[in-house]
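Researcher: For the record, we're logging two predictions in this thread. I'll number them. Prediction 1 follows.
Model: Prediction 1, sequence and structure:
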Amino acid sequence: SAAGAAALAVAPAAGLAIVDYDAVKYLGGTDKVDLNNANVQAYRQFPGMYPTAAGWIATHGPYKQVGDLYEIKGVPENVKALFKKYEGQFVVLPANE
């Protein structure tokens, strides 16, 4: 029928999604998180990081290396301890504009 053909013509085609950002896995989809591009929600997987420690990270970038976390002025020692605990799970990629 014409109605059926019209519905098929406007329906999105099934297919594979094209990912144009190779580092999407570091935005919360794996056990590694990109300090420059992930939002605070990505840190929920690390007990104690969300929301306070994650907020410090998200509001003080961009970073050139993971060690830059320890240069943030005013970070309480308990938050620095969380950075240290999970620093092996962090990566630093160029910040998306």
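Researcher: Logged. Prediction 2.
Model: Prediction 2, sequence and structure:
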Amino acid sequence: AQFLCALNRGTLAEAKRHNDCVRGNWQAVMMQFPEIGLWREFHDKLKVRVWSRSKEEKDADKKERGSMWDDDEGPRPSLWAKKWRGRI
């Protein structure tokens, strides 16, 4: 898993460096390790699950704080993410 994660981060860094385009060498590597695609899908879905908040959470948040310009904390995790973070 750590190797796949490192390969994924390498390809993402390469893509970021070259405006979402990777060199042909990386294409061969990605063909050798098709699990990278599964890892990316999992990572993207997990990111959406952690950072997407329900309407109730957003409404409660608006009541707690003033304007959005006063928000220095940045994005807040969902209740689901907070629960799992507590368990870990």
